[in-house]
Amino acid sequence: MPATHPQLSGHSDLIARYSEVREYTENLCEPLETEDYVPQPIVDVSPTKWHIAHTTWFFEEMILKSFAADYQVFDPEFGFLFNSYYNSIGDRTPRDRRGAVSRPTVEQVFSYRRYVDHGIREFLLLAYHVHSRRPENVPLKEIEDMVILGLNHEQQHQELILTDLKYTFSLNPTFPVYREGAAMVELPEQPASAGGQFVDVESGIYGIGFDGHGFCFDNELARHRVFLEDFSIRKHLVTNREYLEFIEDGGYRNANLWHSDGWDWVNANGIDKPLYWIERDGELFNYTLAGLRKISMEAPVCHVSFYETAAFAEWKGMRLPTEFEWEAASLKFNWGLRWEWTNSAYLPYPGFRKSAGAVGEYNGKFMINQMVLRGASVATPPGHNRKTYRNFFQPHLRWQFTGIRLAK
Asked: Tell me, what DSSP letter sits at residue 398?
């Protein structure tokens, strides 16, 4: 189980942190109309209504139903509707049909959130002072750890709310504005002259994985040593200008640059540029959460798949860093604008053990057919990043705020 957050010293701090994270989610929903909460255009994109209900279900299922002796569920049908992938808990709505769940209404889902929020606050207040409110053999630390896991889980869904809304809005021919000032992809990272700067990392043995106080996910645990050869890693992310050069040089038409699966994906789907790039009257635009914007050429390229990232690196005569190289070098460059693809498959660390029960389904069962991304992105909520964080997606996906850092 994850460790307790070092800044939380008691129930008042934990309740305050709980309220802060839950309110952040609802702040993300402020610009939305009722119709915005429901659509699900593809299986990878979930409706906002489902996100706010699922994160609430997590606290109800994993904490209130597990630890609060007299808790009454809000609605017995919600477990089926809003479970995500926890097979040990029971059946659930198929992932690709979340958008078909028009009832409960958005208003009812927010009532559900308020009901569970009240239950969590009351339970925490009483659990610290009235031991009969929780099983005697359950220590407070286990409850605290589960609440903190739930908060970090909700922060993951806060980022997904933004990325999923962006994908859904992008299919609207009017290119709606989610929020003014929320473009998130157009801020330049560095002047064009800085693009070729690399930092060297000497060969040696490096410690990899979480080692310290505070929260981490279980896939960051089992700290271990790896030997790395000498390598260099670029200080700055690849820019839109550089990626446009790749396109104009026929990068999407040159089979020699692509993995076999990537080449099949490009041709089967007619891929010829990053997601959200739109050409109008000979000019390139980018759909953003602040609407359609002209592409900033010195901003880091965004919304590219692992396949595209690897092909670009091949075109440059370079490669992607492994996740171990990235972590070893992470103090030598600034990160956090884009989730950065690495050349590492998502696999368990030596000594990794899944937790017992439903929590053990959180990360371990996905350690197949996915690639690791490191860092964070402009859509990641504040405080939800660390150099050991292991994000992971299938290699064709690109609706997240993903970018490219080269190594050689």
From this structure: -
**Residues with Cβ < 8 Å from 211, sequence gap 6 or more?**
223
The answer to whether 199 touches 232, Cβ cutoff 8 Å, is yes
Pairwise CA distance, residues 67 & 128, whole Å = 13
Both tokens assigned to 79: 């477990």
Residue 3 DSSP class: P
Report how far residue 376's alpha carbon sits from residue 118's, in angstroms, rounded to the nearest whole number.
31
Q: What is the pLDDT of residues 13-58, one digit of tens each?
A: 999 999 999 999 999 999 999 999 999 999 999 999 999 999 999 9
Cross-strand partners of 231: 201
Alpha carbon 127 to its chain's center: 32
**Model confidence band, residue 189 (pLDDT cutoffs 50, 70, 90):** low
Q: Which residues pair with 294 in a beta bridge?
A: 285
At a CB cut-off of 8 Å and minimum separation 6, what does 65 contact?
71, 73
Tell me the Ramachandran region of residue 250: left when phi exceeds 0, alpha when psi lies from -120 to 50, beta otherwise. left
Tokens of 213: 């106080």
Residue 355: exposure state from Cβ atoms within 10 A (0-12, 13-18, ≥19): middle
C-beta separation of 312 from 376 below 8 A: no
Domains and CATH numbers, the chain: 11-170 (1.20.120), 192-403 (3.90.1580.10)
Return the closest-CA partner of residue 86 out of 62, 106, 117. 62
Residue 155: how many other CB atoms lie within 10 Å: 20
With beta carbons less than 8 A apart as the criterion, state whether 339 and 371 touch. no
